[in-house]
Amino acid sequence: MSSATHSNIDSILQENRKFEPPAEFSRHAHIKSLEEYEKLYKQAADDPEGFWAEVAKELHWFKPWTKVLEWDAPWAKWFVGAEANLSYNCLDRHVLGGRRHKAAFIWEGEPGDVRTLTYQQLWLEVQKFANVLLDLGIKKGDRVAIYMGMVPELPVAMLACARIGATHSVIFGGFSANALVDRITDQQAVAVITQDGSWRRGNEVKLKVAVDEALEKCPTVKHVVVYKRTASAINMKEGRDHWWHDLMAKAKDHCPAEPLDAEHPLYILYTSGTTGKPKGIVHTTGGYAVGTYYTTKMVFDLKEDDTFWCTADIGWVTGHSYIVYGPLQTGATTVMYEGAPNFPDLDRFWALVAKHKVTVFYTAPTAIRTFMKWGAEYPNRHDMSTLRLLGSVGEPINPEAWMWYRDVIGKDRCPIVDTWWQTETGAIMISPLPGAIATKPGSATKPLPGIIAEVVTRAGEKVPLGSGGFLVIKKPWPSMMRTIYGDPERYKHQYWSDIPGVYFTGDGAREDKDGYFWIMGRVDDVLNVSGHRLSTMEIESALVAHPKVAEAAVVGRPDEMKGQAVSAFVTLESGSKPSPELKEELRAWVAKEIGSMAKPDDIRFTDTLPKTRSGKIMRRLLRELATGGDVKGDTTTLEDFTVIAKLKEDEQ
Ligand code: PRX
What we know:
Layout: H1 6-13, H2 23-28, H3 34-46, H4 48-56, E1 67-72, E2 75-80, E3 83-84, H5 86-95, E4 103-108, E5 114-118, H6 119-135, E6 143-147, H7 153-164, E7 167-170, H8 177-187, E8 191-195, E9 198-200, E10 203-205, H9 207-215, E11 223-227, E12 241-243, H10 244-250, E13 260-261, E14 265-271, E15 279-284, H11 285-299, E16 307-310, H12 317-330, E17 333-337, H13 348-356, E18 360-363, H14 365-374, H15 377-380, E19 389-393, H16 399-409, E20 416-419, E21 453-456, E22 468-473, E23 483-484, H17 488-496, E24 503-511, E25 517-522, E26 526-529, E27 532-535, H18 536-544, E28 549-559, E29 563-572, H19 580-593, E30 602-605, H20 619-626, H21 642-651
Helix pairs in contact: 3-4, 5-6, 5-7, 5-12, 6-7, 8-9, 11-12, 14-16
Residues 271, 316-318, 393-396, 418-423, 444, 505-507, 519, 521-522, 528, 533 line the site of adenosine-5'-monophosphate-propyl ester (PRX).
């Protein structure tokens, strides 16, 4: 168990408050009572395939399935033999079905510019851009990397790929050129869609410059399409780079959606694991469509006149599932915002809620804690009475932040859905259904219908209620990842082998006597820093790539605002001397190697790192040191007993 979440665990262990769904909310909700949820849950558990087939029937299929699930653990095929297209389900279905002039996206740029795209307008843009891709020679099955900020052209590019069957891979705009190289190379992308720059806190994030630098090392990329956002000066490489607007001006309007096999890969999204190499999580067409559609509708209780705002960046899975594919499939109106929450002032999010009359708001605990620190006066400046439901995602939410969210943002009126899931699961797995399930601050409550979750020992035995253990999922579900791109063995080994026969999430959890799940955080070497998922190994690899660094060990430590902070222990090559300047140099180095979100919060120089006799770094000890505590527990395997004492001295 990572000690980094101990403060959260301590507080949630004492949490007894419970909030029933407001009667008025339940009356209008898709699922109206605990009994209704329990009935549905049982029905789905008894016949999962029948349950998911019923959900799938609400979507459009060019060709029906012959079998709902083919399960040869850990290899799943959902909706076998069926053909569908996500872009069709997100667009054509609504344009043909009465939502032609409904707003799909209400977008606001950081400088305050606003654009609304109706379903029909989005449909036209997507068809044109699909033709742009085809005109460039991009084919079904090709991989297209997308490195953009939060502009409507980002979902347009994703949906255009989905329309022709190209597999997209969105790379978060905060990643560095080096991180781009790794991701583009791993998937052998043939094209990159980007933009000149993106606005963030009044500054320009120079995306095209990073692409230029990366592509010097990426020979597979033949084309770069550049959307003009900031109009800053950039280089355009003859023959390789094309302006978005030039290609769109020439593209034809009409591009029918390609019928794709249900298992056709929709996207690859890289996420951090326990090794230095990021994993390309593969999601496919049919199952992902069904999972994101169902969860968006049920968890956010979306109705025809809702305005949904998920504040995530589309560069992460939350944006894929709950800005793009889930809300568009349900025919919702979604708000999309380009910039920072504190620009020009600390009330920007609340100004957006008030201006666009947001009804359902979905954000991360790290943001909520930041808003708490800034103070209630900022939300209180605005009329946010349209809000009716609040959501949280990405990390354990401490009860204090949960209560603040409920009181200050939700005015005690709005239920909160604390949604647990992962890049790998594709869609929400454990969450309240807001009209049905009473909430407890800090608990993600119960698994959704169709999801069989359990807390078990290493050997796979269910732990007694109330005890901590490993969170596993016992049955396949439609939106599950299918593999790690190019590395099926790693998929099998990493997720399905640690605990026999089940999907291991990497999280620790506890189930209470009411069947509520309390997620305690990662039990592996994955860090969760401000909701960003980072690998200790990846940061270590970045550090040791620096010429002055001999060895590095990275651990997480609890941080009140960020959830976890990154603590690095570094030994230097002989001849290099520790200094505050070198610390800064190393922090900047990590930002360049990975991205600024991975910068160590603290760096400690040390002569040696504590290791077992077999040479493994003893992270538990380092975590305890990073947290400032005494070193407890068994240290008898330490190779050199003096190391701990030495590290503690170094700290003083
Ligand atoms: O540790 C869990 C935490 O975030 C991890 C997944 O990170 P990522 O793949 O980046 O996806 C984040 C958005 C879905 C999980 O293994 N996590 C996510 N949601 C919660 C959470 N921890 C506690 N409570 C949650 N609601």
